[in-house]
Amino acid sequence: MNAARLLEHFERISDAADAVPRLRRFVLDLAVRGALVAPEAHDKPVSLADAKARAPQVKAVDLPIESLSFTVPAAWRWAYLTEFANVAYGFAFASNRFNSSRKGMPLIRIRDIANLDTEAYFDGDYDEQYIVRRGDYVVGMDGSFNVRRWRGSDSLLNQRVLRIKDWHPDALCAWCQIPLQMILDHVHGQTSQTTVKHLSAKQMNGVRIPLPPLAEQHRIVAKVDELMAVCDRLEAAQAEREARRDRLVSASLARVTNPDSDDAKSATPSVRFHLDHFARLATRPEHVKQLRQTILNLAVRGRLVPQFPHEETAEQMLEGVEAPPLPPRYNKRSQESVMGSCGLAINHPKAAAPPGWMWVPLIRIAKLESGHTPSRNRPDWWNGDVPWIGLVDARVHNNGVINTTIQSTNAEGLANSAARLLPAGTVCFSRTASVGYVVIMGRAMATSQDFVNWVPTPAVTSEWIQLVLMAERPALDRFSKGAVHQTIYYPAWISMHIALPPLAEQRRIVAKVEELMALCDQLEASLASAATDRARLLEALLHEALAPAA
Questions:
Q1: For position 348, which CATH number holds?
Q2: CA 510 to chain CA centroid, nearest Å
Q3: Which of 68, 143, 231, 391 pairs with 341 at a CA distance of 20 to 30 A?
């Protein structure tokens, strides 16, 4: 055994996702191996004097000790659980007498063991031999095979729940719980995979528990309690550290999103400073996700790149651009208010646009096209030469460009679905079922009815429309409707406004976003690599610590 190196490197592994749970397991591993406390010469081996003999008529399937993942000192004694404790199995109480109105006796079911509380009550006659009292131990025989000391009120022992009580004086129940849980975890791992794993009475009757001298049992339990309290403090410190990091990340991103100054020019250096140093703050993938959203928010607010006053304004640019035709249903639909998540929202704003920008209805700068799907009852309409974008395609290519699709149709299917072959550069947004996928067509394609499509005019790039829809994605859920499948209906799309920069600035912003998103990719990869390294180091140190001494 070598636990010193584990403690030496604890700071490096403490950020591993499961560091503290693994340390708890490590303590228990040491306990059942007899390596947690030293034996003492005056300790008397357990004799189990006056223990009841294991009745030969009890049906049991012995669990080979050699198959377990741990070995115990030679001075310890292995004994059947049924030798030194009263083991009883639950009763199948009539379910038609169950209630949740707290009438009758509480009933311990499998789900109640981990919670140490009951949800159901039994209102009917029962035998007192099935009463579980505070301090008894219960074991779930389905699912995870949890062993818990019951701390609730007197309750009834339902079927598939095991009760252990009346321990022999030489067997400390708090000690026995430790190897029993590890043995049942081993049995759980060896049980064939089914929907729910089951533990049989024969298996439980064949379980043997290692019993150190009684004085050593007390010392081990005391040491386990001490080290588990240390783990509790480590877990609390880890949670507080992560909470502080989260607050620092949020504060930093809030600072760049909502600077004290509304002047984009003066805010840009601060933005660059925070983005350049964000990698020192980020420790989890959620932090990078927040950074990505912040980058998008800054982009659509005009705070990501410098502005050049000599460029033509969006208003001047629009003067020479013909508006696309209004959607066919424009006059038949009531327009709805659509407000986005950013300070500069996708609806007509309350805040002013950046200098040179202009708030415009999206249908003023892009043609709204509906998606359509050919009939599934006509297989001859499928597997043609026309690529057909569906939700699966959009999920794979989300926030990018799509050139290939899983499904395709032919000219007849395209014509009979009332769909159009849309040009390259069309922006497609999934508006129903899985709301929020946004892709750009890399070639002429059609889309399913799950999409709303935007064909840009010369006043706006496809990448800018995609960028705005990505930035506003968190807000769009508020405008979806439907009990089963959420859908954003056309009145919302028809009324949508976006902030439009000059064309050259659109391209600069998009390029900057792509650059920063690539850095986010690298940061995510770095975090994943660091997490893997910590996990491997933890695994190696635990393996080394548990290895037999040379």
A1: 3.90.220.20
A2: 30
A3: 391
Q: Which of 87, 160, 89 has its CA nearest to residue 127? A: 89
* pLDDT (tens place) for every residue of the chain, 550 residues total: 455 666 566 666 666 767 888 888 888 988 999 988 889 999 999 988 776 654 444 678 888 888 898 999 999 999 999 999 999 999 999 999 999 999 999 999 988 887 767 889 999 999 999 999 999 999 999 988 999 999 989 999 999 999 999 999 999 999 999 999 999 999 988 877 666 789 999 999 999 999 999 999 999 999 999 888 888 888 888 888 788 877 877 776 776 666 555 554 545 555 666 666 666 677 788 888 888 888 898 898 888 888 888 889 999 999 989 989 887 766 554 444 444 434 334 444 566 788 999 999 899 999 999 899 888 888 889 999 999 999 999 999 999 999 999 999 998 888 888 888 999 999 999 988 788 899 999 999 999 999 999 999 999 999 999 999 999 888 776 666 765 667 887 777 888 888 999 999 999 999 999 988 998 898 889 888 888 887 788 777 777 765 655 4
Query: What does pTM read for this prediction?
Result: 0.65
Residues 333 and 292 in one domain: no
* CA 20 from centroid of its chain's CA atoms: 19
Tokens representing 541? Answer: 């140190």
Are residues 448 and 389 in contact, defined by beta-carbon separation less than 8 angstroms?
A: yes
From residue 321, alpha-carbon distances to 423, 457, 468, 493 in Å are: 19, 8, 20, 21
Distance between CA atoms of 107 and 451, rounded to whole angstroms? 51
Alpha-carbon distances, residue 124 vs 93, 146, 159 (angstroms): 9, 28, 16
- Nearest 5°: CA angle at 54, between 53 and 55? 105
Number of domains in the chain: 3
Structural domain of 252? 235-301+512-537
